[in-house]
């Protein structure tokens, strides 16, 4: 068992169930024009386009992923509905037209942003008034006890190093979203039972020792955020 075409750690046992879940939670509707920011090899985008009458612009930093995604899109016959390009979602206004999208989705990609405020500002500009932003990602847990906090920070530093991440703080992300002008629709922990087998196998196969030989700890919360660009 591996990630298949959906490069996400927080997942139920079935990848199809995960993509169906994401499609529902992000509120995708027929007719939507969608930005898939940090699209991987477009597994989720392909699922969305196969199940809703939507058009999608997808962007990833990786040229390898762009080429894999294009092959998969061609195989699925979705070239007219999904366009994928290489680009940095920290510079969205240089890549796409303003007020262009009904939805922007960040599926375990926001946590890669070194400059999250510019990501959110860019997403805001690109959304149409009334358009929505959906983020599914992990956020750093917080511990009051200084010893536990230090251990948590060590694990997060290791995770960041191994996976090229900037594990976000939920509190700071919410402040940035408000500062950007987004209106909160809802924030919730993920609503499915986690199956960690893919994630655990991946770490084992690659010899990643995230806990530096110590017992594993829970270092993150899996959260979904849904925000809206106001109409006026
Ligand atoms: C964990 S993968 C998730 C991929 C995809 N959303 C999925 O669910 O299969 C993170 C993705 O974010 C992309 N990414 C990271 N930083 C990025 C950036 N600054 N601009 C665009 N894409 C980025 C990576 O290339 C990768 O495709």
Summarize the entry for a quick read.
It contains 7 helices and 7 strands; from the N terminus they run H-E-H-E-H-E-E-H-E-H-H-E-H-E.
Structural notes for this entry:
The structure is a single chain. The protein has 232 residues and is an alpha/beta fold. It has a single domain, classed as Vaccinia Virus protein VP39 (Rossmann fold). 35% of the residues lie in helices and 23% in strands. α2 links the parallel β1 and β2. α1 packs across α2 and α4 crosses α6. The model has no long low-confidence stretch (mean pLDDT 96). The site of S-adenosylmethionine has 20 residues, from α2 and β2.
Tag the structure with descriptive keywords:
232 residues, alpha/beta, binds S-adenosylmethionine
Please name the CATH topology.
Rossmann fold
Largest sheet: 7 strands, mixed
Name the average pLDDT: 96
- The count of β-strands is 7
Main sheet strand line-up: 3-2-1-4-5-7-6
Structural class: alpha/beta
What is the element layout, followed by pairings?
Elements: H1 15-25, E1 33-37, H2 43-51, E2 55-60, H3 63-75, E3 82-86, E4 101-107, H4 116-126, E5 127-140, H5 146-163, H6 170-180, E6 183-189, H7 197-205, E7 220-228
Parallel strand pairs: 1-2, 1-4, 2-3, 4-5
Antiparallel strand pairs: 5-7, 6-7
Helix pairs in contact: 1-2, 4-6
The structure holds S-adenosylmethionine (SAM).
Residues 6-8, 38-40, 43-44, 59-62, 65, 88-90, 107-109, 112 line the site of S-adenosylmethionine.
